């Protein structure tokens, strides 16, 4: 990550300026909350994809920075709303907005971020970029609802899982790459190719996130958290589809009724590991990673392409 940050350090600094300007308001409370959000931002993976995909096609420009700001505004809005929905009081080691300012203010802040993102594009006639990102937000909402529906009866096939994470995670990364590309590339073929590139990276990214639930590292959420929330992820889906009927019944019973019992959750995690669920998920994650790289290799070797390749490999090799 250090090499990537160094390559686009000046662009990231400029992005920070644009993002802070985009979140500015006339309400003191909002400004305090925005300052809190800016200070605790994560690794900024999505803006980095915007900037690097733009660099593949030419020089980063104001349109690129607006695209990166829009992506980050929408992403932040969804995280704020997610914390309210999940009743989560912590994110990335910090208190969530709803923990500090309660649900009503957190929801309104999420709405404000969405509105600021929309206006940022509309005021600058970035309608194509707005269409790309609006489609992603729609897909994210649909996929979250589909996941909630499927978690009620724990009936989820592998293909349905892929459809959920395609909308839930991959759609935003896909749109980030497409939005960045649209700021420098002239033809839709390159934009669509880089959207597909981003989608494959997003699929690999989410599977990696799901794998963390079966590890022991401190990644900002407890091990077995997905099981406690009755989320069926790829390692567990593979296990349920390849174990004995008796074990399947027991796992489903635990996830449905004993999902807060640490010993029972540990039993499920151990069953997944013994059934080869971890290795299977890693194999699928690497397939998506390699498909993304194949699309990236369409472009001639350059510093931008090398940085994008490193960023792709970081998504699957990261420790948290």
Task: Give a verbal description of the structure.
α4 (45-57) packs antiparallel against α5 (62-85) and α11 (234-241) crosses α13 (262-274). The model is unreliable at 218-222 (pLDDT under 50). The two termini are 13 Å apart. It is built from 15 helices and two strands. A hairpin with a 2-residue loop joins β1 and β2. It has a single domain (2-317), classed as Farnesyl Diphosphate Synthase. The protein is globular, with a radius of gyration of 20 Å. Strands 1-2 form a two-stranded antiparallel sheet. With 320 residues, it is mainly alpha-helical.
Summarize the structure.
With 320 residues, the chain is mainly alpha-helical. It is built from 15 helices and two strands.
Q: What fraction, in percent, of the residue positions are helical?
A: over 70%
Instruction: Tell me the total number of β-strands.
Output: 2
Uncertain segments are 218-222
Using the 3D structure, state the CATH architecture.
Orthogonal Bundle
**Order of helical and strand elements:** HHHHHEEHHHHHHHHHH
Tell me the CATH topology.
Farnesyl Diphosphate Synthase
As a percent range, the share of strand residues is under 5%
Number of domains: 1
Helix-strand category: mainly alpha
Distance between the termini: 13 Å
Largest sheet: 2 strands, antiparallel
Shape field: globular
Overall CATH class: Mainly Alpha
Number of helices: 15
Rg from C-alpha positions?
Answer: 20 Å
What's the arrangement of strands in the largest beta sheet? Answer: 1-2
Average pLDDT confidence is: 89
CATH superfamily: Farnesyl Diphosphate Synthase
């Amino acid at each position: 990550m250090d090499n990537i940050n160094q390559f686009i350090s000046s662009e990231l600094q400029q992005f920070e300026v644009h993002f802070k300007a985009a979140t500015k308001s006339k309400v003191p409370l909002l400004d305090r909350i925005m300052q809190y959000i800016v200070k605790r931002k994560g690794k900024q993976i999505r803006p980095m994809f915007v900037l690097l995909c733009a660099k593949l096609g030419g020089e980063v420009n104001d349109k690129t920075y607006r695209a990166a700001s829009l992506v980050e505004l929408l992403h932040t809005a969804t995280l704020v709303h997610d914390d309210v929905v999940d009743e989560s009081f912590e994110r990335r080691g910090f208190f969530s907005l709803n923990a500090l300012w309660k649900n009503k203010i957190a929801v309104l802040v999420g709405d404000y971020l969405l509105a600021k993102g929309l206006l940022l594009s509309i005021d600058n006639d970035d309608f194509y970029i707005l269409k790309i990102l609006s489609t992603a937000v729609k897909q994210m909402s649909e996929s979250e609802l589909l996941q909630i529906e499927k978690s009620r009866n724990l009936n989820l096939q592998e293909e349905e899982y892929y459809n959920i994470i395609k909308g839930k995670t991959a759609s935003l990364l896909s749109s980030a790459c497409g939005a960045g590309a649209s700021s420098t590339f002239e033809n839709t073929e390159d934009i669509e190719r880089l959207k597909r590139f981003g989608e494959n990276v997003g699929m690999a990214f989410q599977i990696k996130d799901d794998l963390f639930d079966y590890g022991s590292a401190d990644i900002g959420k407890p091990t077995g958290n997905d099981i406690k929330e009755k989320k069926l992820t790829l390692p567990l889906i593979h296990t349920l589809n390849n174990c004995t009927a008796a074990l399947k019944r027991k796992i489903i019973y635990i996830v449905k009724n004993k999902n807060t019992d640490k010993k029972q959750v540990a039993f499920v995690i151990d069953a997944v590991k013994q059934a080869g669920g971890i290795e299977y998920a890693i194999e699928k994650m690497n397939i998506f990673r390699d498909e993304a790289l194949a699309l990236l290799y369409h472009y001639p070797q350059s510093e931008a392409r090398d940085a994008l390749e490193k960023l792709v490999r970081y998504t699957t090799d990261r420790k948290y």
